[in-house]
């Protein structure tokens, strides 16, 4: 293997230029992914009704849990791939691809079988009522049957990005969105399949794009490609990938617990429509979070490669630039939501009561958005440089240590407002902790004289 076949630009090119090169495709892909979820809600809200939005919101914890298991191997393996490329360990880099295939197939099938066996009790526990259960059930059965496709699709997309092909990773997500946008109205309005139509559109679009991803990785001219011998399970690759991927796994798993508590509280203090309002708030909030995650995905291979190559001054520089960009993005979200919440909520439904509840929720939830970008970036930064324990700590602080107690206590005094306000309070405290941990890490770098070229 020639050195020119490897992404050595990660260790030599200008950091600002690299971040744009890797982050812009990732941002576009993440925005497309978020718009993909938003359009699902819009089509369901206008094509099926406000209770269908509530039914869809009931599925969020299960969707997050599925994403948690999907990211457990995929995200960890992509980070490991970047580090191995920085270390010029090319054989292991290719073996990582094969292990991602096998482990994601096993996890995806296992998750589907177990969840389908107990689907209705799970949905009731998540906050479903007799009115919303049929919508949630119909949607999740189809999504779960396609879960192994979703896991493999997400895993290969992470591999594309970390192997120096950020544009192809972006195209994969965009293609999924475009296909979904075509199939969603056809299935919901044209064929009258209701919420099932949205689920079918999701799975079919991922099957088509997964086929294209496999085609890309079948090209022997690519640096990382499918070849004989790479599908042999390697316990060290699996162990390291799972250790690194444990942070996003726990973050998504904890997010599932949080949404369950939110849905249960909203059902108690506000009814089915309040859950639908949270569904709207969640979709808008994630639009801006996903942009920041796109920045993080652009940062990850750069930070991982340079950390592996011991170019620590470049690691520090890419972190600073990522934080700056993320803060700008989240501040834009803050101003839009605070100024025109009613307009934002009305995109999803014509139901005035649902719009009013969602408008209040949006304004409260976004209060700390200008600073929460720091917590998101710093957590991913520790993950990118293979400091899994610190990434896990930061992932759990907001979701578990701070948010859960507030969700259990404040609604008893403030009702539905207590549920909304718990989120920005947790954002504030978790951001302060992230800043303190990063400051301590930089002190360690300085002690070891690692910030110098």
TrEMBL record:
Pfam hit, one: MatE
GO biological process: response to antibiotic
Main localization of the protein described in the UniProt heading: membrane
Subcellular location per the Swiss-Prot or TrEMBL entry: Cell membrane
Molecular function GO terms recorded: antiporter activity; xenobiotic transmembrane transporter activity
This protein's GO CC annotations: plasma membrane
Family note: Belongs to the multi antimicrobial extrusion (MATE) (TC 2.A.66.1) family. MepA subfamily.
Protein name per UniProt: Multidrug export protein MepA
Organism the protein comes from: Apibacter mensalis
InterPro entries: MATE_fam, MATE_MepA-like, MATE_MepA_subfamily, MdtK-like
Keywords: Antibiotic resistance, Cell membrane, Membrane, Transmembrane, Transmembrane helix, Transport
Bilayer-spanning residue ranges: 21-39, 51-75, 96-119, 139-160, 172-193, 199-218, 242-262, 274-295, 323-348, 360-382, 391-413, 419-438
Membrane topology: Multi-pass membrane protein
Source lineage: Bacteria, Pseudomonadati, Bacteroidota, Flavobacteriia, Flavobacteriales
């Amino acid at each position: 293997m020639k050195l020119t076949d490897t992404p050595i630009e990660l260790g030599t090119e200008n950091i600002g230029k690299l971040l744009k090169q890797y982050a812009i495709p990732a941002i576009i892909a993440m925005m497309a992914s978020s718009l993909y979820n938003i359009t699902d809600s819009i089509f369901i809200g206008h094509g099926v009704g406000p209770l269908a939005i509530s039914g869809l919101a009931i599925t969020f914890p299960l969707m997050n849990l599925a994403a948690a298991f999907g990211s457990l191997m995929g995200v960890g393996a992509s980070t490991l791939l970047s580090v191995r490329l920085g270390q010029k360990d090319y054989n292991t880099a290719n073996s990582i691809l094969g292990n991602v295939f096998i482990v994601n197939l096993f996890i995806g099938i296992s998750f589907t079988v177990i969840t389908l066996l107990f689907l209705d009790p799970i949905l009731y526990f998540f906050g479903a009522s007799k009115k919303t259960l049929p919508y949630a059930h119909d949607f999740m059965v189809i999504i779960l049957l396609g879960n192994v496709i979703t896991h493999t699709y997400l895993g290969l997309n992470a591999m594309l990005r970390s192997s120096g092909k950020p544009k192809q990773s972006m195209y994969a997500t965009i293609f999924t969105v475009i296909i979904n946008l075509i199939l969603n109205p056809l299935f919901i309005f044209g064929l009258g399949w209701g919420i099932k139509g949205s689920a079918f559109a999701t799975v079919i679009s991922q099957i088509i794009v997964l086929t294209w991803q496999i085609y890309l990785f079948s090209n022997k001219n690519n640096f990382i490609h499918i070849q004989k011998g790479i599908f042999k399970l390697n316990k060290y690759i699996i162990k390291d990938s799972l250790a690194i991927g444990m942070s996003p796994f726990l973050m998504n798993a904890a997010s599932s617990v949080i949404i369950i508590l939110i849905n249960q509280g909203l059902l108690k203090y506000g009814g089915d429509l309040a859950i639908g309002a949270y569904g709207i708030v969640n979709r808008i909030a994630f639009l801006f979070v996903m942009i920041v995650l796109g920045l993080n995905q652009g940062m990850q291979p750069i930070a991982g490669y340079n950390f592996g190559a011991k170019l620590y001054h470049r690691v520090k520089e890419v972190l600073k630039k990522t934080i700056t960009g993320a803060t700008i993005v989240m501040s834009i979200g803050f101003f839009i939501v605070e100024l025109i919440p009613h307009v934002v909520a009305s995109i999803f439904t014509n139901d005035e009561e649902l719009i009013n509840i969602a408008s209040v929720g949006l304004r409260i939830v976004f209060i700390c958005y200008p600073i929460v970008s720091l917590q998101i970036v710093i957590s991913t930064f520790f993950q990118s440089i293979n400091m899994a324990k610190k990434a896990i700590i930061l992932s759990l602080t907001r979701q578990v240590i701070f948010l859960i107690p507030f969700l259990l206590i404040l609604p008893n005094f403030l009702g539905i407002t207590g549920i909304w306000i718990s989120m920005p309070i947790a954002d504030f405290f978790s951001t302060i902790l992230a800043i303190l941990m990063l400051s301590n890490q930089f002190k360690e770098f300085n002690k070891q004289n690692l910030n110098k070229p």
